[in-house]
Amino acid sequence: MTTNFADYFLLQEGLTFLNHGSFGSCPKPVFQNYQDWQLRLENQPVAFLDQERDLITNLSKPREALAKEFNTSAQNLVRVTNATTGLNAIARSIALAEGDEILTTDHEYAAVENTWEFLVRKVGAKIVRAQVTLPLASEDVFFEDLVSQMSKRTKILLLSHITSPTALRFPIKRVIDEARKRGIITVIDGAHAPGLIDLDLDALGADFYVGNCHKWLLAPKGAGFLWAHPNWHQKLEPLVISHGWNVKDRKEDRTAFLDSFEIQGTQDPSAWLAVPAALEFRKTHNWAEVSKACNQRAQELAQRVAAFTKLPSLSTPEFCAPQMVAMPVPKTDPRKLKAFLLNERKVEIPVFSWQDQTIVRVSIAAYNSQKDADNLLAALQIYFADSTSNTR
């Protein structure tokens, strides 16, 4: 990367920000577009939010842009605040009964687990967590890990496309196909996937897919999408029943699915409306090459950390998320390590316990330099050298 992309972002000076995978950072031109939309809203709020005037046309453009990016129809996508919101709408729309099972893995995002746990407790259903064999190095082994846990009671298959705690890229296509053969509903949590990996939503063949635009797609916070197979459009219920739920004289290009999710009264959709600007920024700067360089830097850093810690990786590079690596470090109190990294070394990065391991998850974005990677490694070396000396 010859362009100094740090100049395009608004990150705090002096901070080593290695957590793009959680919330991302929005480039200045995209953020300006976002603020322009907000200004238009304040200039004429009634016209902006009136579905008979500007709103429908404005909201359709991001859907159309994302549909083109992800090889699907714009009629299959609706705006949601984030992936978790979309998953909540899906979960509330599927009738569960006592004895039903939701098959997932031991790598899922806590908020998503909470969503389904909340629902299964009400009806006496059950969550089955398949243990994924680590290191993840074989699609065949992953397939068997999941299929071996399928039963006649399995109603839903819930999978991350890219896992949050472990930054693994699950090979989900074959498992989705098997679930479909068995009549199992497939729900894919793609929170980290848009902008990080190529997506072909129609070819993937799931029943549902949710994603965030505020991570690797570079859009502002509050822009996500819910994709649903057309068979589900009439069955999905929005979390909020508002003006769009029972539209009279619906326009020819509109559906109940689109209206019930998009027409939600007084909401600021500016983050969603800035999605086309984010896509254009990526296109202008040849983002595939930028991502490739970032991924190489992430993998090199992971190798250096592993050489220092002597701990095995969670996967082979093939199954690791591009630009994002979860790195086991010697077991310690994650709160203390995180506080040390942030307060004493100015490094912002997720640190947490997972499966009785301490994990540091690094994200390498366009604005991250080799110096950022060096800063993290040096900080880890200092912390654990001090730990072995019983000073921490």
Tell the overall outline: globular
Distance between the termini: 38 Å
Tell me what the CATH architecture of the largest domain is.
Answer: 3-Layer(aba) Sandwich
Task: Tell me the domain tally.
Answer: 2
Q: From the 3D structure, determine the CATH topology of the largest domain.
A: Aspartate Aminotransferase, domain 2
Strand content: 5-15%
Class from secondary-structure proportions: alpha/beta
Tally of helical runs:
14
Question: What is the number of E strands?
Answer: 12
Any low-confidence stretches, pLDDT <50, length ≥5? none
Rg measurement, Å: 22 Å
Strand numbers in spatial order across the main sheet: 2-8-7-6-5-3-4
Sheet with the most strands, sense and barrel status: 7 strands, mixed
CATH C-level class of the largest domain: Alpha Beta
- Average of per-residue pLDDT values: 93
How helical, in percent, are the residues? 40-55%
Fourth-tier CATH superfamily name of the largest domain: Type I PLP-dependent aspartate aminotransferase-like (Major domain)
Sketch the topology as an H/E string, one letter per element: EHHHEHEHEHEHEHEEHHHHEHEEEH
Describe the structure.
With 392 residues, the protein is α/β, with parallel strands linked by helices. It has two domains: 30-281, Type I PLP-dependent aspartate aminotransferase-like (Major domain) (Aspartate Aminotransferase, domain 2); 286-388, Aspartate Aminotransferase, domain 1 (Alpha-Beta Complex), CATH 3.90.1150.10. It has 14 helices and twelve strands. Helix 4 packs parallel to helix 5 and helix 12 (287-309) runs parallel beside helix 14 (370-388).
